[in-house]
């Protein structure tokens, strides 16, 4: 199949920017509509339905560089691609290829770019018909996958401050939060900007009935009386890949079974630990919420242990978690 360019692991001739910026180097390629093209030339038309109405779904996948092993590891690529297929179904689309092929495509893309640093991969499946008229049916769809070098999205090495958002999470009866729908990220943007413009690092967003849902782009966990808790899938959360990974680590490494139940806003104020997690965010301790100090104002012991375990696992330093990883080279 896709053999336009031989696989290469050599470093790029042009240095790349540190985080999430479109690289201008002509060496960087993306996959679009059936083949590899320079990222700098990948464009969609201004009348594309997804651009006009947000009718698209996407995934965010990280790949971690391990310097000692000279290896780049795709993290939970299969799980992300399987969620992409689920989101596509909700939006009346099909993923255009099987999960195995999608995983292979991500490997191929990263190899072609020869990345030897932490990278973020963004597959997007979008309604590609160029037409006015809001609907989900009777539209073509297409796929693009790009990858860019990526560092931290929010701090992981210090506690962050959070504000309960005045905005509500989009509910399942408006735009289902379980699917990563592009248009729904306007909701996340409202919350994130409100929090940051008010001087906080992140937002914590509630459901319409006032329960804790999640961060603007992260799932939320709290520790209370030594128990680890997280909101359930009926509280308008994205069913996070990192959320499952945290539960896995807590159970296998610490004997902690996560309790999944609804959480009240005021419960967060008296929690001993709170953290946010997600592919972009990784794991970020929350040490103050709405001017209340969480615990003693530092990352707590359970959060600290999970941070350590998570970064060891994703960089391929824990053999027991090798099945989370897809080696790229
Ligand atoms: N919630 C939202 C709204 C998100 O955008 C993300 C990031 N994808 C998450 C939670 C975390 O999900 P994951 O761990 O699968 O990246």
The CATH architecture name of the largest domain reads: Alpha-Beta Barrel
What's the CATH H-level homologous superfamily of the largest domain? D-amino Acid Aminotransferase, subunit A, domain 2
Count all strands and give the number.
Answer: 17
User: Given this structure, which CATH class of the largest domain is correct?
Assistant: Alpha Beta
Distance N terminus to C terminus? 19 Å
**How many structural domains does the protein architecture include?**
2
Using the coordinates shown, work out and report the CATH topology of the largest domain.
Answer: D-amino Acid Aminotransferase, Chain A, domain 2
- Ligands and ions found: 4'-deoxy-4'-aminopyridoxal-5'-phosphate
Quick summary of this structure?
The protein is 24% helix and 27% strand. The chain has helices spanning 49-53, 77-90, 99-113, 185-197, 241-254, 265-269, 301-314, and strands at residues 29-32, 35-38, 56-58, 61-66, 71-75, 119-127, 141-149, 160-168, 202-206, 212-215, 219-224, 227-230, 259-260, 273-278, 282-289, 292-293, 325-327. Mean pLDDT is 93; it is low at 1-18.
Descriptive key words:
single chain; 329 residues; alpha+beta; D-amino Acid Aminotransferase, Chain A, domain 1; D-amino Acid Aminotransferase, Chain A, domain 2; nine-stranded mixed beta sheet; eight-stranded antiparallel beta sheet; 7 helices; 17 strands; disordered N terminus; binds 4'-deoxy-4'-aminopyridoxal-5'-phosphate
